[in-house]
Each structure stands twice: as C-alpha cells, then as structure tokens.
Amino acid sequence: MLNDDILKALIEGIIYVAPEPVTVEAILKTLDGEERERVKAKLDELTADYEQNQHGIQIRQVANGYKFSTKAEHHEVLRKYVKSLKPLLRLSKPALETLAVIAYRQPVTLPEIDQIRGVDSGGVIHTLLERKLVVTAGRKTVVGRPILYRTSRDFLVHFGLKDVGELPSLKEFEELAKRALGSEWSAEETPAAGTEPARVVSLEGGARPLEEAVASASEPLTPEPPAPSDEGGAPPPEEEPPLPS
Prior knowledge:
The protein is mainly alpha-helical. It contains ten helices and five strands, in the order H-H-H-E-E-H-H-E-H-H-E-E-H-H-H. It has a three-stranded antiparallel sheet with strand order 3-5-4. Strands 1-2 form a two-stranded antiparallel ribbon. The model is unreliable at 183-208 and 218-245 (pLDDT under 50).
C-alpha cells in the first residue's frame, strides 16, 4: 500500500496528464490495490488544497470525473495572456523528416539532406528557417561551398531539450515531435509541380524508414557541433542567447 503523500502525488499527476476528466474508477484501475475510500479521501484533500488562494488552478468535477482548470476570478488576466501566445506550431511529414535529418546529422548541407530523404528538400528547409527551428551554420569547405544547417535554440525549447546531446532515438523523436508540434499532420508543404513526394524515407515505415536512411549515411549518427564558417562570403552562424538555467 502506498503511503499517503505518494498516493496523493500520484492522483495529482494522473489528473494533470489526463486530456479528459478522470473518474475515480480510472484512478483505482491505475493504482491497483488501493481502496476506493482512501483514494476518494486523498482526492478530496487535493481538491481542498487547490482551493486555497495561493493556487491559480483548481480541481473541478466535470462529467463525473476530475479535471484541472483555472479559477474564474483569474480568467480576465489569463485570457489576456493567452491572446499573446503564438499559434501552435505544426509541421508536415516532409518538414518533420527534414528536421530530424538536420537534428541528427548537423551541421548538414541541403544536398546531403536530399540524398538521405531521396527528394528535393529546398522548400521544406525554407519553412523550417521561417519557423526558426533551423538556422544557418556557415558553409562547408567543399566544391560549391553549400550552406550548412543546424537546429536552433527554438528547436531545443519546443522539444524540451537542454542540448542536442539529449536527443532521443529517431523513433522516440517522432513521438516527441507529435506532442511538441501538434498531434495531427498538416499539409502545408506540398510537392512542387513536376516532382514526386518522398518515397525513400518515411517516419512511419514505407520503402525505407528514416532511421535506416539516416543511420546508413557515411558519417556517425551523432549530432556534431557546427563547423566554423569560412571567410569570404560565407553566411555567419546565427547568434543565439544561451538557454536560461
């Protein structure tokens, strides 16, 4: 049997993460072995705790379940804040594929991205730059001096990462992206006239999964620090402030 503090904390966490109101039965099913009366008592304690003035949220009974919500007396201020927020950032499958390639191969050039994805990624790169998920990182010292791309500070913020060293596996990255950037795929990037959509790689399987395509590239599947830009026309890397500690 769980002690009182842990039981109370688990009930609080379950209600917090649930997208819909949580019933007592659902909590009991999750906390197998706990008595209904004890769970209900701790739930009542939590509800009373959040009714105190020092809390800006409360636990309300909604549709026979329990759900966190803001307090009515704070709605005017909170409404003003919500209006100032940026709209939810959503990415199409091609954009997410491209972002994943950049995240795990950075710094990387457009030709290298195209080779891994098996399709022209120029338009998607432009979208990622506009949304500040990707920045330039100088030019690669090869013929043609192609621009290098890397992920940005905004990328770390959206995905809740301290640095690129915390990147999970590509499979986990897909799930992380769905939560951070929207659970539904949009259709913002469409193939240009005369071109075909990517067939070589797909985050959901297909002819060749993205993880296999990225891992099969010539260099190790490890994020690298951005290469220094050369003098003489190379665009400088975008300077970004450090993440708050």
